[in-house]
Amino acid sequence: MQNKGLIKLFAFLFGIVSIYQLSYTFITSKIEKDAKVFAANSIPESEEGYAAKRDALEARYLDSIGENPILGYTTYDEAKKKELNKGLDLKGGINVTLQISVKDILKGLANNTKNPAFNKSLADADAASKNSDDTYLELFFEAFEANKGDSKLASPDIFANKGLSDVINFQMSDAEVKPIIRTKIDESIVSAFEVLRERIDGFGVTQPNIQREGNSGRILVELPGARDIARAQDLLSSTAQLEFWETYKQSNPSLSTFLQNANEKLKTLVVTENVEQAPKPETELDSLLSDVAQDSLDLSQDVNPLFSLLLPSNPGGNALVSVAIKDTAKVGEYLRMKEIRRLIPADIQFVKFVWERPTEGSEVVDLYALKSNRDGTPRISGDVVSDARADFDQFNRPAVSMTMNTTGAKEWEKLTGDAFNNQTGIAIVLDNKVYTAPGVSTGPISGGRSEITGDFTVNETKDISNVLRAGKLPASADIIQSEIVGPSLGQEAIDSGFMSFLIAMAFVLLWMIFYYGKGGAFANIALILNIVLIFGVLASLNAVLTLPGIAGIVLTIGMSVDANVLIFERIKEELAKGKGKSLAVADGFSNALSSILDANITTGLTALILLIFGTGPIKGFATTLIIGILTSLFTAIFITRLLVDWYISGKGRTLDFSTPITKNLFKNANINFLSKRKISYIFSSVLVLIGLFSLFTQGLQQGVDFVGGRSYQIRFEKVVNPSEIASELTTVFGSGTNVKTFGEANQIKVTTAYKVDVEGIEVDNEIQDKLYTTLQKYLPNGTSFEDFKVGSGDSAIGIMQSVKVGPTIADDIKNNAFLAIIGSLFVVFLYILVRFRKWQFSLGAVVAVFHDVLIVLGIFSVFGKIMPFSMEIDQAFIAAILTVIGYSLNDTVVVFDRIREIIAEKGWKAGENTNQALNSTLSRTLNTSLTTLVVLLAIFIFGGESLRGFMFAMIVGIVVGTYSSLFIATPVMFDFLKKGVQQGKEE
Predict the structure, then answer these.
(1) Rg of the chain in Å (alpha carbons)
(2) Reduced to 3 states, what is the DSSP secondary structure of residue 148?
(3) 899, 904, 892: which is closest to 965 by C-alpha?
(4) If pLDDT is split at 50, 70 and 90, which confidence band does 247 have?
(5) Is there a contact between 539 and 20 (Cβ–Cβ < 8 Å)?
(6) Contacts of 615 (CB under 8 A, 6+ apart)
(7) In which element (H, E) is residue 645 found?
(8) Is the CB of residue 946 less than 8 Å from the CB of residue 886?
């Protein structure tokens, strides 16, 4: 081997850099462990709210030592930025995909036009977007072409308005306007991206990840380690639409008249049933409602649809009335009815009704009546705020202090002057919720300084000031996909992932020594270095380690073993020919190189396809697989070679690459594979037909990734009956709700399509509330809603993980999965065609791959409802299928490579030499398959419930792939050769 000194230097430096990069992870782990111990010793479990107090104490401890020097080259704060990133499934936290509303941006650019063609085109684009892969903007342009009539995009009441006058004029054609609008949309999405990034930076999560997804208007945000999930969701989806309005007086006679008339009108519109109910315990709220029923608002002894839901608000305040939170939806529905809106008196005809922001633990909220105008625009909007910061008011309560620009200061002085003169209040509204509505007692306020007060926590004032400083989003941001993992589940994933990793490593290391003796020991040294390099590269690239990523690393162990097995088997063949040890080693490495490269390139191509089309954890799997392929090639080809050359260079040293037990295994193998091809064709055809029949009749269990919906992994203290729970939840969420045991008998997975088309955190909260209410009897006494919710603490009871996928993104995931599989097959077909120069080789490989994929799909269809673990088809399953494709091709390419080599020397000879080639690779095929299978079985058994379906698909794929490379790929290739070529008569 040439340039040994250079390779040694490179290997040494590569190893040192990897260890250096990983040192930051070891430092932060040690310090955080010390912080946990300190907090646990300081706050006993008997103390109320101990978990939250311990978290706070840990944070203070880490802050206090953050700048202290460690080992002379770093600090905790610096090491935290450079440690190996852990993904959501290992650390807990939240991962969301936000869809920036292009519709909102278009309406804003068109100045909220009333143009009928424009608005109909928006409605048509809404409908079309549910069943189309095109962007919303392109769908809008198509709809506008169909609806425009005499209008055009450059009409004065569409885009040729004052706001766009510098880039669009009346004379422009639609073709000229479209690229300008595309640019404006892109600018708005970039603006949203920057706003979100600034908000996330102020949230306080280490190693957040935020990235745009092409031109789709989607933004992916991952906050590993985030514990306050509700706070994170509010931060991400809040538009930060700040508005200042003047309120109407509580005693305004026109409002009183309107409420009276609305109540009377509703008596004729609403059918109210008086159903006798069994007496129930009376709460404080019920008592309050009972008292109000007797007061002056109840003007009739009859049923009052509206007045029966209203409570008197604080006398002297600026709210109109109060309403129980449970009744706000009904009251809002009444006030939005067209028949009711017509009753509003002319002097308040543009009144805007807005709810107060509900505070934690409150059962009642206020309803405000705001002075609005024909266009529904506020007196002052939030874009005049130049600065905002968390502060404390005169009573030392958390508040938000704001400073306005010059324009805002003038408007603020005018607004406060009007409120003082009219003796009304000023409602400060953020995202359509009134945060506070104080009166003005000292006349107009100059200078543009103002303050938002309310029943805030310190974190809330930090978040509000953060979003106001970052600015408002240019459009609403809907969470169309989310995954939330509780911290305790993340820790379990780490424990189970590394347990499977260590068991797999131990087996492989022992097996290599058992089978290859000293040569196996050298391969083990190279393998351990390979693992160090993989983790080092991941840390240096700031890549994220996920549970599928650990699976990718463990699979890399099998591939690294495969390369060494190929080399050792070729060296054994050269030694058997009587060559000297140095020449045998040199020829063995040289002859194995072609097979190693072909096998790893085909697997690498499938990993690359995964990286392009996959999302989230699947990208993590692909990343580690690609890194693992590169490091495996380096360690197997160079490091193992250095060690072997070093050893055999010593006097009197022998290296047989076998042990007494394994020395003659497969040595005289002489199986006539081609003669058995008819049996294998029949056997495989039967398996494939059974699978296809099941696929067409039963189908596959598609996960929420592909059909949309929400799924929840819920753990209980005791064993539960999923059928019983399914019956109860079906009455709550409707048909299609699926409940099944997930892992242990005290854990279930609930999947529902309930309100899957409705976006917003309110729906997520509603579903969690319904789950808690329905399942409360199965939970330990005293389990609160907060304890039950995702991410509410380290408790091992309640919702451990939740996933939400909107129907639109589910279609995209399904399409990407299909493209990934087809793209992988096409790329590999071309590679094999170029590499082997005969289309029969490509055909044999692709037929074998289709055979493997159909059998895996068939097994998942046939046994999907029988197996005691989840066999849903999701993104992880697609990753497994692509890995199976890669492995099957890996195996097939090694076999084809040996066939090509032997045929080049001896010709075809009616299949005799083809059989010889297959027999000569048998030791390698079974060795690699066995080690890879044991590795996968270790993950399957010890790697956690979420990986079981993924691993099962790969286990089946490895078994079937090994079989197909011998009994399908080669026979198909041979059968499609010309008769003359088969007999060796022509080439």
Answers:
(1) 34
(2) coil
(3) 892
(4) very high
(5) no
(6) 220, 813, 816, 875
(7) helix 640-648
(8) no
Structure tokens at 684: 């495989």
**What digits encode the pLDDT tens for the residues 98-116?**
778 888 888 888 888 888 8
Round to whole Å and give the CA distance between 555 and 939: 10
Which residue, among 632, 530, 501, 525, has the nearest Cα to 15 in the 3D structure?
A: 530
Distance linking the first and last C-alpha atoms of the chain: 35
Identify the three-state secondary structure at position 750.
strand
User: CA 104 to CA 92: how far, in whole Å?
Assistant: 33
Whether the CA torsion 526, 530, 532, 536 is positive or negative: it is: positive
Three-state DSSP class for residue 163: helix
Is residue 870 within 8 A of residue 853, CB to CB? The reply is no
**Per DSSP, what are the bridge partners of residue 100?**
477
CA angle 361, 365, 369 (to 5 degrees): 160
- Are 476 and 239 a contacting pair, CB within 8 Å? yes
CA atoms within 13 A on the CB side of 594: 17
Instruction: Say how far apart CA 489 and CA 92 lie, in whole Å.
Output: 7
In this structure, what are the phi and psi dihedrals at residue 238, rounded to the nearest 5 degrees? -65, 130
β-sheet bridge partners, residue 286? none
Check: CB of residue 899 under 8 Å from CB of residue 976: no
pTM: 0.68
- CA–CA dist 596, 211 (Å, integer): 36
Q: Give the integer Cα–Cα distance in Å for 628 and 636.
A: 12
At 411, give phi and psi (nearest 5°). -65, -40
Cα–Cα nearest to 629, from 602, 610, 593: 602
Rounded to an integer, what distance in angstroms lies between the CA atom of residue 750 and that of residue 722?
9
DSSP 282: P
Distance CA 478, CA 762 (A): 12
Give the tokens for residue 455.
């029943």
Distance CA 507, CA 937 (A): 11
Contacts of 493 (CB under 8 A, 6+ apart): 89, 90, 547, 944, 946
Q: What is the 3-state secondary structure (H, E, C) of 525-553?
A: HHHHHHHHHHHHHHHHCCCEECHHHHHHH
The separation between CA 255 and the C-alpha centre of its own chain, rounded to angstroms, equals 48
Taking only the tens place, the pLDDT of each residue in 628-657 is: 889 988 998 889 889 988 888 877 777 778
Amino acid identity of 359?
Answer: T
**Mutual orientation of helices 487-516 and 547-576 as an angle, nearest 10°?**
0
Q: Which residue has the tokens 């590679």?
A: 831
Which is nearest to 908 in space by CA: 965, 836, 834, 980?
980
CA-CA distance, 521 to 320, in Å (whole number)?
81
User: Where residue 688 falls among pLDDT bands split at 50, 70, 90?
Assistant: very high
Please, is 217 exposed, middle or buried when counting C-beta atoms within 10 Å of its C-beta (0-12, 13-18, 19+)? Answer: buried
- Work out the average pLDDT over 215-239: 71
Residue 112 phi, psi (nearest 5)? 50, 50
In sequence order, the β-bridge partners of residue 607 are: none
CB-neighbour burial class of residue 273 (10 A; exposed 0-12, middle 13-18, buried 19+)? exposed
- H helices within 299-374, ranges in order? 328-336, 338-341
Q: Which element (helix H / strand E) includes 799?
A: strand 798-805
- How far is residue 416's CA from residue 414's CA, in Å, rounded to a whole number? 6
Q: Identify the three-state secondary structure at position 780.
A: coil
Give 368's strand partners: 354
Q: Could you tell me the CA-to-CA distances from 60 to 36, 48, 78, 438, 801 in Å, in that order? A: 11, 19, 17, 36, 28
Instruction: Give the residue from 602, 577, 606, 984 showing the smallest Cα distance to 822.
Output: 606
The phi and psi torsions of 213 (rounded to 5 degrees) equal -110, 85
Instruction: Note whether 790 and 802 are within 8 A (CB).
Output: yes
Task: Give the pLDDT band (50/70/90) at residue 615.
Answer: low
**CA-to-CA distance for 550 and 545, rounded, in angstroms?**
7
